[in-house]
Amino acid sequence: MNQSKTDPRVLRTRKLIMDSFIELSGEKEFKDITVKDITSKALINRATFYYHFEDIYDLLEKVLSEVLLVNLDCDYYQNNGLNEEALVNIFKAITDFQKSLSTRCHRGYEDTIARIIREQLEIIFYKLLLKQRPAEDEHPLKVTAVMLSWGIYGASVEWRRTSKEIPPEEFIKSAIPYILSGSNFGAAD
Predict the structure, then answer these.
(1) Separation in Å, CA 86 to CA 7, 124, 171
(2) Residue 27 to residues 89, 115, 160: CA-CA distances in angstroms?
(3) Whole-model pTM?
(4) Residue of 62, 79, 90 lying closest to 148 (CA atoms)
(5) What is the per-residue pLDDT for 102?
(6) How far apart are CA 153 and CA 115, in angstroms?
(7) What is the pLDDT of residues 130-159, one digit of tens each?
(8) How far apart are CA 15 and CA 71, in angstroms?
(9) Which of 40, 73, 110, 137 shows the smallest number of beta carbons within 10 Å?
(10) How far, in Å, CA of 111 to CA of 157, rounded?
(11) How far apart are alpha carbons 120 and 126 in whole angstroms?
(12) Which segment of 75-84, 99-108, 137-146, 180-189 scores lowest on mean pLDDT?
């Protein structure tokens, strides 16, 4: 029988695998977690694991992406534009996500985490820009989305490295007027 990836049973099994992985990541370092550990905790066989994920790195990437998307509350951005509130909320979600990972993920996976954060931010920023400027050429909007995603991610790394005693909201608020006026998104047409 060929089941669809949207079949509720398939979705439940996928969630069970991801939840088992998240639970295990609280108990041991990522490098020490095996597929056998995950399948034992989830009470599934290896073939079921590999039906859903290519390998443990694919699972890591999918879990991080989903957790980040939950933190970012993407539905909020569907109805709002690129403004101060959106930038503060995005920055806060990124810093919260990074804090939650600091005890779970080994430093060797920071590149994977950084890539996932930047990719998800790029998608959000592109949608926000496209919504505000639907008639414009897509290429400059994509480039702007890339620049914003790298900039927000870089600011979150800087906050984590140097300014943890300052709330993330305060840290980013000082730069927002420059982002909005410099990019002309906050200005009236």
Answers:
(1) 34, 10, 15
(2) 30, 25, 24
(3) 0.73
(4) 90
(5) 65
(6) 10
(7) 888 777 788 889 999 999 999 999 999 899
(8) 17
(9) 137
(10) 12
(11) 10
(12) 180-189
Alpha helices by DSSP H, the chain = 8-27, 35-42, 46-52, 56-72, 74-78, 84-102, 110-132, 138-162, 168-173, 176-183
Cα–Cα distances (Å) from 168 to 45, 150, 173, in that order, read 43, 17, 8
93, amino acid identity: A
- Give the tokens for residue 106: 């080994």
| Residue where the block lists tokens 């095996």 | 34
Question: ∠19-24-29 over CA atoms, to 5°?
Answer: 135
105: nearest Cα among 16, 20, 22, 40: 22
pLDDT at 142: 92
Residue with tokens 């403004």: 83
Task: Decide: 98 and 160 in contact? Cβ < 8 Å.
Answer: yes
* C-alpha 94, offset from chain centre: 7
User: Is pLDDT of 182 > 70?
Assistant: no
